[in-house]
Amino acid sequence: MNPKSLCFTILIAILAIFISRFIIDPSPHFHKIIIDSSLTLSSSSCIIMKFIPFDFSDFCRHRKHPDKGKPVSVCDDFPPNIPPPETNTTLTLCVDQNGCCNFTTVQAAVDAVPNLNMKRSVIWINTGIYYEKVIIPKTKPNITFQGQGYTSTAIAWNDTANSANGTFYSGSVQVFSTNFIAKNMSFMNVAPLPRPGDVGAQAVAIRIAGDQAAFWGCGFYGAQDTLHDDRGRHYFKDCYIQGSIDFIFGNGKSLYEDCQLISMANQVAPGSKSINGAVTAHGRASADEDSGFAFVNCSIGGTGRIWLGRAWRPYSRVVFALTSMTDIIAPEGWNDFNDPSRDQTIFYGEYNCTGAGANMSGRAPYVQKLNDTQASLFLTASFIDADQWLQSYNS
What we know:
Layout: H1 3-22, H2 28-42, H3 45-51, H4 56-61, E1 62-64, E2 71-73, E3 90-95, H5 106-112, E4 120-125, E5 128-131, E6 134-136, E7 143-146, E8 153-157, H6 161-164, E9 173-175, E10 180-183, E11 186-189, E12 206-208, E13 213-216, E14 219-221, E15 227-229, E16 233-237, E17 240-243, E18 245-250, E19 253-257, E20 260-264, E21 277-282, E22 292-296, E23 299-303, E24 306-310, E25 317-321, E26 324-325, E27 334-335, E28 347-351, E29 368-369, H7 372-375
Parallel strand pairs: 3-4, 4-7, 5-8, 6-9, 7-10, 8-11, 9-12, 10-13, 11-14, 12-15, 13-16, 14-17, 15-18, 16-19, 17-20, 18-21, 19-22, 20-23, 21-24, 22-25, 23-26, 24-27, 25-28, 28-29
Antiparallel strand pairs: 1-2
């Protein structure tokens, strides 16, 4: 796929997101139709030229003044206080793909952050789709990605397990440092939607492998295996997470609050008992590991017939509390990875959830209906020891 075709694919995918946010109710099936169409269209360069006759670099860089009719730089309207001056506690770097900042790529700004810097390094990212693979190494702690809205600013790439030599390495963004923060932006993997039976099609939007990471108002978009919550303590607030199979997976200890979890799994025939997706696949391998996923005040919707989670590792631990669930959740709710020996060691709990998918009468026998005391351990940020590290949204 050539660069113009790739740009078109991402443009259509983002367009689907924008339309679903501002015009219609979010529908992953609608997203899927648009993305499938974009992939089909992008395979033909003549069709691309028909739909995109502009040189977008010139089109985005200049525009006509409404009064004088002469071209002016798009940078004329750039916020005058960006980036703010460096302080004793904060360094701000600015990224704009039109050249209005010191950096045109996010990775270049990351590379410019001093190693082992103790200041908070805020990378302010202007509106746009940044088509690049971004890696934040262990030597770059205390970085913040500040976008302009999760439907306005996105980092996108298209690696798969096949192209990246493993699912773990397919992430469009990979975070290995501590104290990472992201606000008001999206992370996308725009690899083609896998077909039934595809091997190596896993495509991660972000891998979080550093301790103490927080995400506010972020979007995570992929076809499957979207969010690799690999290891460490993490916090997600008001986020939108989309995928199909194990689309939140890993061995992190993470709290998800007020998040939308949207399945893109294929529709199933009425009355069918087939399962074609799962929200989580937690990877706790032993009782000694202090990890687990807690979802509080979230919502689950979309398409397909899915499990809340499946036991990727024998001590998998996931709790859903005060969460609304549509009827896409299978009655048994969970899966032991087809290994009954894990039934004695996994911890799957539900607490005061609502909706057609929250009926626990048909749940698998190892699923726990938590009481107030049991659930209290998972309901607040103390689950991830947030008082020791989590910074407020406005910091």
